[in-house]
């Protein structure tokens, strides 16, 4: 969550003391019963197995805690105590890092600790006592400060003690940025007038042996870094809970991903292509694993690494549909590490994608790579025009399109099923062990005669296989669920227990017991209408209540107190991670089933009554139609109900249905959707009571939409590049990427070079002379012939890292432009890509290619066999991939 940050920090702050060493310090509750602090506070002589004392900021008795992990080099330790005695209501912490250098968008960092300067004696009941008061410390962290030692330096912006020794006791305080824990205060250095606090970055802790494992074992949640200074642009990850919707969410990453190795490799290569900015699209029907593929890619790229010389891992996340501060797009241009930004349902968010690309590609900013990964259900009518307009520009290379299909092993679906079932069982065990509240009968761990929910012989997607496996497991844990039979019914029955627990906590259980089905109607309303703010949420509740009581007397309207209570319950039930007021039950298939059941129970009037309600905003109506259109393939009866609703109120809904909603669908789905709407409009027009003019207009609108869609489909008929194994053309294309980077550098040298020479600035000889003068390349002779051959496209030179980087460095030196780690990374990865592709091509061929690859990139030139090409790499290409499949 992004609200009440100060209260959230106050809940977490604790005082830590070790009576044996007479040391004291601060700490941060990272989960119920779990505290992160400084190692020198709790185990100065090493952990002795004896407890230390921990006291919450808001008072209460001190509780014993024991060290379960520590690292003296990082001066960090984890303490564990009874979760019921400390932090029982505290959410599991989110881990963050600072990734940008944008001065205008630098967020405030905050810590709460117990420094010696705040300790004081005073009389209480006629006796003198010592009190350690907390101190809130605000400041800024400039990532460049202390960058060589890879530490954070918090520059205090408010009141500070008169001397640095008075900071004693602040050690172990957590430093938060945008609600994420980014560092651990450990030291107040000399010479800075007590205005600087050094901190261990959380990224170092997550890379340390045993830390992430200890945290995951205690919380049930895999520890993963998020960019704290980009939180205003990104979705929040879901909090762990024992509900079907959470366990099935792609970002929970419960079941290990399998079957998408080829797509994963293509996307990894795209990320490391050497371009500064690039866009790719991943498409596939709902439930096949697009979001999980993107999440896994981000996790793999962002794995923390230790060591001062280690390359910085990638950062990123899912771009929020409602960013809190769109001005922070500018911060992306100052990233100090590569970024991967994922856009879900991208076909509905092209304006946002355009805005972001315009900012990041129009700036000379960072040399770090920025990748924008678009997820959509279908390439439809949006991808090809988008791709054609940008391909080959600063914002997009070739326009990679990756399709995700059913990745279940047809030869062994049973093994995939059992693997998923085992993964769900293990995550449930961990979550229960971590104290996550549940609604199950804990006595029914393994019934004597368990009734299995048999897996179907075929599944339409990975999601349906996972849903069946989870339903089977739930029926084993609690035999009462087995009576529901169908997997979806089992999952919804379990989910409804979660709803009921949240309703009880807000005193609404009596209301829902007196009005059967109302709780499910409210969840369906949340899924259909959504809410960007509290006003929209209240309007949706009012509309949902009226839809639930359709045809029944409701008096003077809904009670305001009831509306507020239900609205708050739904915000807690499914919180939004994207800045909106509400989220929604997931996955889409489960949400569609809830809506379908409510629609059937209302005699097929719920959807029409809700979408036509005058209190809904137009964007809420659009969301409702969009949700239904996405579910139409699996639940066609919903599309029929929505089409009838459109036909009944064409002035409010028809334009949304035939344009905004249809434009978000794939061609075939959109054709089915608009045809359904047109049929409903025509059927409605045959009724005698209908205005003929309105009916004629509605039919013409539907016809126009169909014709427009068919025309657009024909215009977008350009074939998409196949994701076939790489060939020689791919090797040549990637070599051109290396050459393009060098040509850009040389262009700057020619244009901006200031030295006076007989030959022109930036000439081949000039570049060779600069390399020789500065001795950048050791053990190799780089003369003007080598430089000329490199720019002439010779593969043996373009794949020699020292030569490529040395030439680029010389060009930057001539132009007076800094050459930083980002430029080195881009060139190095581009060279890696060429050699990796060449090795894969060689490995995939059973005999020598009859058409060897071109020895030069571009026009003309001699030819070189692949064997010669690889042989020329020799020992100087030690860092390239050794496995042809890597």
From TrEMBL:
It comes from the Bacteria. The keyword Transmembrane does not apply. One of its GO terms (molecular function) is peptidase activity. Pfam families: Trypsin_2. InterPro entries: P-loop_NTPase (IPR027417), Peptidase_S1_PA (IPR009003), Peptidase_S1_PA_chymotrypsin (IPR043504). Keywords: Hydrolase, Protease. Transmembrane segments: none annotated. Residues 841-863 are annotated as: Disordered. GO terms for biological process: proteolysis. This is Serine protease. It comes from Streptomyces inhibens. The lineage of its organism: Bacteria, Bacillati, Actinomycetota, Actinomycetes, Kitasatosporales.
């Amino acid at each position: 969550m992004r609200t009440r940050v100060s209260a959230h920090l106050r809940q977490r702050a604790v005082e830590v003391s070790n009576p044996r060493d007479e040391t004291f310090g601060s700490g941060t509750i990272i989960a119920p019963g779990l505290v992160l602090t400084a190692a020198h506070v709790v185990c100065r002589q090493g952990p002795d197995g004896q407890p230390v004392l921990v006291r919450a900021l808001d008072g209460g008795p001190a509780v014993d805690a024991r060290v379960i992990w520590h690292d003296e080099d990082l001066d960090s330790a984890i303490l564990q105590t009874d979760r019921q005695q400390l932090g029982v209501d505290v959410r599991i912490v989110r881990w963050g890092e600072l990734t940008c250098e944008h001065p205008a968008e630098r967020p405030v960092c905050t810590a709460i600790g117990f420094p010696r300067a705040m300790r004081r004696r005073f009389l209480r009941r006629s006796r003198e006592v010592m009190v350690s008061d907390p101190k809130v410390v605000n400041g800024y962290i400039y990532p460049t400060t202390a960058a060589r030692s890879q530490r954070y330096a918090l520059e205090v912006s408010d009141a500070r003690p008169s001397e640095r020794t008075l900071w004693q006791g602040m050690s172990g305080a957590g430093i938060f940025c945008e609600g994420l824990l980014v560092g651990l205060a450990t030291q107040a250095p000399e010479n800075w007038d007590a205005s600087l606090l050094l901190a261990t970055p959380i990224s170092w802790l997550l890379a340390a042996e045993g830390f992430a494992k200890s945290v995951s074992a205690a919380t049930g949640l895999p520890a993963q870094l998020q960019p704290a200074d980009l939180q205003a642009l990104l979705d929040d990850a879901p909090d762990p809970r024992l509900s079907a919707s959470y366990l099935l969410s792609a970002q929970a990453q419960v079941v290990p991903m399998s079957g998408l190795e080829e797509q994963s490799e293509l996307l990894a290569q795209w990320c490391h292509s050497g371009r500064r900015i690039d866009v790719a699209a991943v498409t596939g029907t709902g439930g096949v694993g697009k979001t999980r593929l993107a999440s896994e890619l981000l996790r793999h790229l962002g794995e923390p690494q230790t060591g001062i010389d280690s390359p910085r891992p990638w950062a990123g996340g899912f771009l929020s549909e409602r960013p809190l501060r769109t001005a922070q797009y500018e911060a992306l241009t100052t990233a100090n590490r590569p970024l991967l930004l994922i856009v879900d349902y991208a076909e509905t968010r092209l304006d946002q994608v355009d805005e972001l690309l315009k900012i990041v590609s129009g700036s000379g900013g960072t040399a770090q790579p920025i990748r924008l990964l678009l997820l959509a259900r279908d390439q439809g009518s949006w991808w090809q025009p988008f791709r054609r307009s940008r391909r080959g520009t600063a914002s997009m290379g070739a326009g990679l399109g990756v399709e995700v299909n059913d990745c279940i092993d047809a030869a062994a679906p049973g093994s995939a099923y059992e693997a998923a079932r085992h993964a769900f069982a293990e995550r449930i065990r961990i979550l229960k062990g971590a104290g996550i509240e549940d609604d199950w009968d804990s006595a029914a761990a393994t019934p004597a005669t368990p009734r299995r929910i048999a897996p179907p012989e075929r599944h339409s997607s990975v999601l349906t296989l996972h849903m069946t496996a989870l339903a089977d497991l739930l029926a084993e844990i609690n035999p009462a669920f087995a009576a529901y039979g169908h997997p979806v019914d089992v999952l919804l029955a379990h989910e409804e227990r979660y709803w009921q627990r949240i309703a009880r906590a807000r005193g609404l259980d009596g209301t829902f017991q007196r009005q059967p089905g109302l709780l499910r109607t409210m969840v369906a309303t949340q899924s259909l209408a959504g809410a960007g703010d509290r006003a929209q949420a209240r309007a949706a509740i009012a509309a949902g209540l009226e839809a639930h009581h359709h045809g029944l007397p409701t008096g003077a309207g809904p009670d305001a107190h009831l509306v507020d209570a239900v609205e708050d319950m739904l915000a807690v039930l499914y919180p939004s991670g994207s800045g909106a007021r509400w989220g929604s039950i997931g996955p889409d298939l489960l949400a569609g089933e809830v809506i379908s059941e409510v629609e059937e129970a209302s005699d097929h009037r719920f959807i029409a009554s809700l979408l036509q309600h005058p209190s809904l905003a137009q964007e809420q109506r659009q969301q409702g139609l969009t949700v239904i259109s996405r579910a139409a393939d699996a639940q066609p009866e919903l599309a029929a109900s929505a089409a009838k609703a459109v036909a009944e109120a064409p002035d409010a809904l028809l334009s949304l249905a035939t344009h905004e909603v249809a434009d978000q669908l794939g061609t075939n789905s959109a054709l089915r959707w608009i045809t359904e709407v047109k049929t409903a409009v025509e059927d409605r027009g045959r009724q005698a009571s209908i205005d003929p003019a309105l009916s004629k207009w509605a039919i013409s609108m539907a016809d126009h939409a169909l014709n427009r869609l068919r025309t657009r489909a024909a215009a977008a008929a350009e074939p998409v590049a196949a994701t076939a194994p790489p060939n020689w053309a791919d090797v040549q294309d990637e070599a051109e990427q290396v050459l393009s980077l060098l040509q850009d550098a040389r262009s700057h040298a020619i244009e901006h070079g200031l030295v006076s020479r007989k030959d022109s600035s930036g000439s081949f000889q000039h570049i060779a002379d600069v390399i020789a003068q500065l001795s950048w390349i050791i053990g190799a002779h780089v003369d003007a012939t080598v430089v000329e051959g490199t720019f002439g496209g010779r593969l043996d030179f373009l794949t020699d890292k020292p030569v490529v980087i040395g030439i680029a460095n010389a060009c930057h030196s001539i132009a007076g432009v800094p050459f930083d780690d980002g430029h080195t990374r881009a060139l190095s990865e581009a060279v890696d890509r060429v050699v990796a592709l060449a090795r894969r091509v060689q490995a995939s061929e059973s005999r020598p290619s009859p058409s060897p690859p071109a020895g030069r990139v571009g026009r003309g030139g001699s030819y070189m066999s692949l064997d010669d090409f690889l042989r020329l790499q020799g020992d100087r290409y030690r860092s390239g991939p050794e496995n042809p499949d890597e």
